[in-house]
Amino acid sequence: MKYMLLIYTAEDAGPAVGSPEAELEMKRYFEFSQEVAQKGLVVGGDPLEPASTATTVRVRDGKRLTTDGPFAETKEVLGGYYILDCENLDQALEYAAKIPGAEYGSIEVRPVMAIPGM
Question: What is the CATH number of the domain that holds 25?
Fold first, then answer.
C-alpha cells in the first residue's frame, strides 16, 4: 500500500538556514531518505519551494481564478513529501515519526488511492 507522508512546518520553525543545526538537520533528512530508499520503500518525494511561491487555482462558474500563495492561511505549510510503499499503516506511521520535521511540525500520513488502470 502506498502512503504519502506530508511534511508540515511553520516556515520560520526549525534551525536557521546556513546554521550548523540546519546542516545537521539536512544530514538527518539525507539519512532518512537513504534508509527508506535502501529498504525499497520510496516511490517518490521532494522538498518544496517556500509557500510564497505557490499559486492556488479555483474554478468558479466556469472561470479560472488564481491566488498567490497556499490554499489555507495557516502557520504550518506543506514543505515536502515522501511517497512510501509500506506493508501497512503502522509501518508508514513508524517512518513518519523518523522525519526530522516531526520534531517541530507535523507529518500527515495519507493512503494513496489505487485507481484501476492507472
Answer: 3.30.70.1060
